């Protein structure tokens, strides 16, 4: 093959990419918001790594924040204080990074809900749904590790709880805890190990999977809602160049702008107020960031039932902290295949469902969201008990009753609403 | 490109674009200047954020008012669409076989790698079981001060460590002084708790948080994380909340010069349970 042939082939390929058509709908932007939050995370994160000191050892703080001067702390916490009070733009970068993490996880969650309710996970996109769920899991894991790095009192309590979850796993629990957290809690190398996982291992995994996710969107084409000229066999929307690229650049700038404004004006995670981590102290009330609260809520509400297998102990945190989240993700991963089995629909679908036209799926999804919402609310049940001037025990029981009834009620109501909407939109 | 892809230039759209571009660039320059001249980050960040938003609005203006509506159409070249015959990797048998083989290979590699990483860490179980407390260790506070019998007024409470491992997370204990008259007839308790001095592991048996709250009447220790409640007068038996195991007790003795010392290690493994935890 001659050089000219190669060049024309490459040119044709680029021209084909630039001419590719992408459907246009506001809900298709949710995944892009996640993508651009990730870019902001990488950018601010690179800046933060320049100033963060992962240890080991202890230092006596003598920096700009007077209230903590003379106190012994880890280099991680001291350098986070330095970032917050002495490094130019440090606090801005920290807060934008934190807000970007909150938006990143939220955008992935809402994006996944959109995919679910419109049936976009069906053939030929089952694999890409699984890639997306994996990305959600990695995002949650990396968010947790990022929260842990400042080594303040709040984050240290969170790591202690995660350690106990790891330790509770049958057979390999102690080994797993030692592997992930570098030894008996709190290990000298723990922050350092979490650091490498947070800044290198998991981000690279996210970037790789994200690339594959986008490639799949590209090669298997984007779905579209029915109506107008839109059919299974065509794609109607914006060409990659110029319209799609201009629009998506606008979105990138808006996401970056909103995150910068949030980081500039709305305080988040003021670690200097919590003090350095001390294994003999804890803060109350304490909650993790929103995307981990469903697990914290489960831990607070699920009956603390430890049990035995072959005479060996499976301690109670295992059910709420390990088995339940894993079962939840397993259900998400399996959903396209389960639905295919139940409905017998093995066809390829490029046109999206309207949620009302799939009442059963929509009802199940709504029930699932109500369950997660209850668990998020339950993550601060001690504060609610205080506000209601009642015991934590009665609030716990209130949540238990709600957990068993509300999802069913939500499912029934959603199903009814779907049918009512169907009747109304029928010709 | 279709002829309709670019709309006729409308003056007001061009004007808006110019204002947004100029304003956005101005705000970004202002933001950078503020960042390097002021010590607080708020105004600088706000200017940078507004600049990015203005530039985003400029791109949106181009998309909405200068480019055509999203009505371009092309044939779908995807698995399952008519324009694509035999290009469905999801149902092609060799692809499926490749996926199965690849998946199994990854699983085997993962299992081997994971096993290799876990090997040689068998000391985990021993370390989880043991603490630094040995028979005869002086009981000291977190600043190293030995605790004398009688230092503590009845009803008060201290966090203590063995004198050779101050700050060791797994060895932290709560030392309480309870009114011996309220103990009633609990001979074993009295044996471990001379003169009302009683010490328990401070690691909650639920999640491993420090059990940091002491309340009187009834005398209970409360874990702040998930509100596990332990009865101080009854061997730290869990009486409410999610813990299902008492806090291990630290036997205490008072030596000849009145110093509190450990009479041995904790009565059981401290903190949350694990697979294979000895009873």
Could you tell me the number of beta strands of chain A?
A: 6
- End-to-end separation of chain A: 59 Å
Strand order of the biggest β-sheet of chain B: 2-3-4-5-10
Biggest chain pair interface: A-B, 94 and 79 residues
What is the top-level CATH class of the largest domain in chain A? Mainly Alpha
The percent range for strand residues of chain B is 15-25%
| Mean pLDDT over all positions of chain A | 94
Please identify the structural class of chain A as seen in this structure.
Answer: mainly alpha
Order of helices and strands of chain B: HHEHHEEEHEEEEEEEE
Q: Explain this structure to me?
A:
The complex is a heterodimer of chains A (427) and B (279). With 427 residues, chain A is mainly alpha-helical. Chain A folds into two domains: 22-353, Cytochrome Bc1 Complex, Chain C (Up-down Bundle); 355-427, no CATH class. Chain A has helices spanning 3-19, 30-51, 75-85, 90-118, 126-148, 153-167, 173-181, 190-219, 240-265, 293-301, 317-343, 359-378, 381-387, 392-425, and strands at 21-22, 59-60, 72-73, 234-239, 307-309, 312-314. Chain A has a two-stranded antiparallel ribbon with strand order 1-4. Chain A has a two-stranded antiparallel ribbon with strand order 2-3. In chain A, strands 5-6 form a two-stranded antiparallel sheet. In chain A, helix 13 (381-387) crosses helix 14 (392-425). The longest helix of chain A has 34 residues, at 392-425. Chain A is globular and about 70 Å long. Chain A starts with a helix and ends with a helix. The model of chain A has no long low-confidence stretch (mean pLDDT 94). With 279 residues, chain B is an alpha+beta fold. Chain B is 33% helix and 16% strand. Chain B contains five helices and twelve strands. In chain B, the strands form three sheets. In chain B, strands 2-3-4-5-10 form a five-stranded antiparallel β-sheet, with no helix packed on it. In chain B, strand 7 (220-222) and strand 8 (229-231) form a beta hairpin. In chain B, helix 1 packs antiparallel against helix 2 (42-66). The longest helix of chain B has 27 residues, at 11-37. The mean pLDDT of chain B is 86. At the A-B interface, helix 4, helix 6, helix 7, strand 4 and helix 9 of A face helix 2, strand 1 and helix 4 of B.
